[in-house]
Specification:
The protein is α/β, with parallel strands linked by helices and 598 residues long. It is 26% helix and 25% strand. It has three domains: 60-375, Alpha-Beta Barrel (TIM Barrel), CATH 3.20.20; 386-474, Immunoglobulin-like, CATH 2.60.40; 477-583, Immunoglobulins (Immunoglobulin-like, Sandwich).
């Protein structure tokens, strides 16, 4: 029995929130019902989340993000190897997988089947991938002969404790966090959700994990949707005493507002999603003020199966996933797990994978990889670094993330999927380049930019809509080169290039029309200076552009900055004579002599 959720949920967030009338949830309700484009007022001091909970983490986006592969710990070695290869290619720092009780101890009390789980944990540890393990799914011998979605009976709670203790101790130091059950607020807890009894299991699991592996985090099982009613009852039963993090699964079809049009069911709902992060944090804070509780999203994805009640095509799946990942990166959410790595063969409604079941990558696979390459090193958003505008700003989603190398990663789209035209201005005049990045390939294309009266980089006329437009703004600039001229047929010329944004591994070339002279021995002295050697033998006289290309693809060109001057009196025949002279000189000095065999 899989603990991963079915996608055909019958309960929307609107219905799940309809019963919340408790004192202290006014802010949460206001946040949930805010229309798009409305600015949130500052929260009253008594209800403000604890500073520790809101502090900007030093973790990068890459360190906060991961991918779910529910059955990873059950696969044979060959399939497991292919999944781990994909996780590494995608630069996933986390993998979420199930260590289901009914898989590991299905034959009876203290009869364990741990081979595949051992292999999964070992592989993850060797590859530097952190594991979020799900504990849950009861074997029939511990719940009265029922399905795994039924919890253990009270008399079998001792066996639940033994299961948690055995698994968490076995993988001490190799599983970073344990999530206790999964979507216990819907049909994955039978015969019906029971917050009070769930907290009993949670408390037992917490104590066992604390004793077995004090460094491992304990995560409350992810709510289907937000599960506000269930969360409140669980919090009142003391759940926050037994967790380090609360998790939820805000699938697009489980959240929304009454005013949403029918076509918005699967939209990412960016504004509402950000407000939900604030609302759930506020709810946690109302019940636990003594220590910070993290907030995780342990599942989010879109099904591309025609059998799903409200499917999307694979291109839309990729666009929505990219939008959600960028949007949540702009919040103080602690962890985010994409659902899922690969389609489920048996559950056709559950085709949320970045790959098909046969490991064929979907567009979302490439989008995820590009997201990590572009935004992975960001730690926070800087909304003031770039100003964005369009004809309908109320539905504009635009984000800017500073990167460690001094560049900016940008993204923009329309939350209502409607076409529009984007303009932007980069506030710091020190920036000099802007490139579009194709999310499906990561390929960069330089944008035609201008500068305003203050020297700020500007871009206009960019078409945006459903698919996010990804951009990179860089500081790479060539300001001077010494010497700035040399005589034709100079064999080796030492160049010193000054500018900004130079990266180790940069390439340098001189370009004149269809002629390119590749420099060699490039040495990046600092981000502001590099040296290189150019050979001008038989180079055509005239003005050359000097082009510097960084390893990340950013490119700067200084037009006509270098001049090759003609050797006076040397025509074509003289040049040939000169070539003969130089070859003779090289031979005489031993450069072209063959070494004698020893």
């Amino acid at each position: 029995m899989d603990l991963s959720p079915a996608r055909n949920r019958g309960t929307s967030l609107r219905r799940s929130l309809s019963g919340i009338t408790r004192v202290g949830l006014l802010l949460a309700l206001c946040l949930l019902l805010l229309p798009s484009g409305v600015t949130l007022p500052a929260a009253p001091a008594p209800h403000s989340p604890a500073p520790a909970a809101l502090a900007s983490s030093a973790l990068t986006v890459r360190e906060r993000y991961g991918i779910a592969s529910s059955h990873l710990a059950c696969y044979d070695a060959q399939v497991m190897e292919k999944e781990f290869q994909a996780l590494q290619e995608l630069q996933a720092c986390w993998v979420r997988c199930t260590f289901a009780w009914h898989d590991l101890e299905w034959q009876g009390n203290d009869i364990w089947t741990l081979g595949s789980a051992d292999r999964a944990v070992q592989e993850a540890d060797q590859r530097g991938i952190r594991v979020l393990g799900i504990l849950g799914g009861c074997p029939s011998w511990a719940n009265g002969g029922k399905e795994p979605t039924y919890p253990p009976t009270p008399q079998n709670l001792v066996h639940w404790a033994d299961y948690v203790r055995t698994v968490s101790a076995r993988y001490r130091g190799k599983v970073a966090a344990w999530e206790i059950w999964n979507e216990e607020n819907i049909q994955f807890w039978q015969p019906q959700p029971d917050p009070v009894y769930y907290v009993q299991l949670l408390a037992i699991a917490y104590e066992e994990i604390r004793q077995a592996d004090p460094q491992a985090k304990v995560v409350m099982g992810g709510m289907a949707g937000v599960g506000a009613d269930f969360l409140i009852e669980a919090f009142e039963a003391g759940a926050l005493n037994y967790v380090d993090a609360v998790a939820y699964h805000p699938y697009a079809d489980t959240i929304g507002e009454e005013t949403d049009p029918p076509e918005a069911l699967q939209w990412p709902k960016e504004v509402l999603s950000r407000n939900l992060v604030l609302a759930v944090r506020d709810l946690i804070w109302q019940y636990e003020k003594n220590r910070p509780i993290e907030l995780w999203i342990t599942e989010l994805g879109w099904s591309a199966s025609d059998s799903h009640p409200t499917p999307v095509d694979t291109e839309t799946q990729a666009a929505y996933l990219m939008r959600a990942m960028i949007n949540y990166a702009s919040t103080n959410l602690d962890r985010f797990m994409v659902y899922s790595l690969r389609d489920d063969r048996d559950e056709v409604k559950d085709w949320c994978g970045l790959m098909k079941y046969d490991f064929t990558p979907k567009p979302s696979y490439h989008y995820y990889r590009t997201f990590m390459e572009v935004f992975g090193e960001a730690t926070s958003e800087d909304a003031a670094a770039v100003s964005f505008s369009c004809s309908r700003p109320s539905t504009l989603e635009a984000h800017c993330f500073p990167l460690p190398d001094g560049s900016l990663a940008l993204a923009a789209w329309k939350s209502d999927n409607q076409p529009d035209t984007l303009s932007l201005t980069v506030q710091d005049p020190a920036f000099s380049t802007l490139a579009f990045i194709d999310p499906s390939s990561g390929q960069r294309t330089a944008a035609a930019v201008s500068r305003d009266a203050w020297g700020r980089l500007q871009l206009s006329g960019v078409s945006i809509g459903k698919n996010p437009v990804i951009m990179r703004v860089g500081r790479l600039r060539v300001t001077s080169v010494e010497p700035d001229r040399a005589m034709q047929n100079t064999i080796w010329l030492n160049l010193s290039v000054e500018g900004s944004g130079f990266q180790e591994g940069a390439q340098v070339r001189l370009v004149k029309g269809g002629t390119t002279i590749e420099a060699f021995n490039v040495n990046v002295v600092s981000p502001q200076q590099l040296t290189a050697v150019a050979g001008l033998f038989l180079a055509e006289p005239g003005s050359y552009d000097l082009v510097v290309t960084n390893p990340d693809g950013e490119e700067a060109r200084a037009e006509g900055i270098f001049t090759v001057t003609a050797m006076c009196g040397l025509g074509g025949g003289a040049a040939v004579l000169f070539l003969g002279f130089m070859l003779g000189l090289a031979t005489a000095t031993g450069y072209l002599r063959r070494k004698r065999p020893r």
